[in-house]
Amino acid sequence: MIKIKAIDLRSDTVTLPTNEMRAAMASAPVGDDVYGEDPTVRELEKKAAALMGKESALFVPSGTMGNQIAVLVHTKRGEEVILDSEAHIYYYEAGGPALLAGVQLNPVKGLLTPQGPEILKETLKPEDIHFPKTSLVCLENTFNRGGGTVLAPATMEELYGICHRQDLKVHLDGARIFNAAISLNINVKELTCCCDSVMFCLSKGLSAPVGSLLAGTSEFIDAARKYRKILGGGMRQAGVLAAAGLIALQSVDRLKEDHANALRLATGLSSIPGISIDLQRVQTNIIVVKVEGKISASVLVDKLSVQHIKCATFGPGIIRMVTHKDVSSQDIDFVISTTKDLLN
Ligand SMILES: *Cc1c(COP(=O)(O)O)cnc(C)c1O
């Protein structure tokens, strides 16, 4: 039987490591990273810090752990964290901030839009015995549940300014920060300068098998390293993973192809009756598809899966599709024509 390779549009996390990564993993110099003796991890952390324009960086097993550590370092129990009501840290991290840091999340609609600065000003409360102390604002760029939308550096700067005047820290969930920088055609530092700490993922569009980095001041990273150990994220010969990460960082420019494929997919699908896509919001590698025809979003997902096309619902009547290294432009054309046939 011939095994048919599925076209997997569920996420860019499904990307497989390249042969170059596997070769680098096999030959990586390694040591015990908990003792600070893994040269490959050290190299990756140094490189990541330089790329982000920060003093120091820490290799962590996942983006979620990086975000949770940032919340732990920047806050104390009982304090308040302001974030978007659709932010990954609020929506997809299983209540981690309540469980681990013991903080109260204040989810705000529209924080990650051009109106964000105005919304933030209205949200910030004066010092009062009744109110929790706000200590942290979390931003997200690109904004996953926003449809991979990009927050412009001017908006980030304004948000950062407001926070700093009030002595609030800013953590940037930059899981896909390179997608944002590529889309804006700017150096990633123009975005990361507007935060006290940033997390980015190697394991999404950059295609590494495992890992994320957290960057900030040396003091912040020292505290983060301790929390990483507490959470069980201290890894030993982690250079095997970091080696793939170093290769991943050379492929940042390739993300352009994912963005072009996303636009091609969105444009093609939006011409099909029963489907609507806000093309203005297709800014990176994520597209949000509204299904309003005779079949529901979940039925369409099932029918596509029979045709070896994988995607997932993203809310009622909504499907998310993500382009990445392992989806070609021919695959995109196949998805468009198959969807057309299914909806006819
Ligand atoms: C994927 C993602 C994360 C978490 O990364 P994991 O490695 O899956 O834990 C955090 N924030 C955003 C915006 C993401 O898309």
TrEMBL record:
<protein>
    <submittedName>
        <fullName>Low-specificity L-threonine aldolase</fullName>
        <ecNumber>4.1.2.48</ecNumber>
    </submittedName>
</protein>
<dbReference type="InterPro" id="IPR001597">
    <property type="entry name" value="ArAA_b-elim_lyase/Thr_aldolase"/>
</dbReference>
<dbReference type="GO" id="GO:0006567">
    <property type="term" value="P:L-threonine catabolic process"/>
</dbReference>
<dbReference type="Pfam" id="PF01212">
    <property type="entry name" value="Beta_elim_lyase"/>
</dbReference>
<comment type="similarity">
    <text>Belongs to the threonine aldolase family.</text>
</comment>
<dbReference type="GO" id="GO:0008732">
    <property type="term" value="F:L-allo-threonine aldolase activity"/>
</dbReference>
<dbReference type="InterPro" id="IPR015424">
    <property type="entry name" value="PyrdxlP-dep_Trfase"/>
</dbReference>
<feature type="domain" description="Aromatic amino acid beta-eliminating lyase/threonine aldolase">
    <location>
        <begin position="8"/>
        <end position="290"/>
    </location>
</feature>
<keyword id="KW-0663">Pyridoxal phosphate</keyword>
<dbReference type="GO" id="GO:0005829">
    <property type="term" value="C:cytosol"/>
</dbReference>
<dbReference type="InterPro" id="IPR015422">
    <property type="entry name" value="PyrdxlP-dep_Trfase_small"/>
</dbReference>
<dbReference type="InterPro" id="IPR015421">
    <property type="entry name" value="PyrdxlP-dep_Trfase_major"/>
</dbReference>
<dbReference type="InterPro" id="IPR023603">
    <property type="entry name" value="Low_specificity_L-TA-like"/>
</dbReference>
<keyword id="KW-0456">Lyase</keyword>
<feature type="modified residue" description="N6-(pyridoxal phosphate)lysine">
    <location>
        <position position="204"/>
    </location>
</feature>
<dbReference type="GO" id="GO:0006545">
    <property type="term" value="P:glycine biosynthetic process"/>
</dbReference>
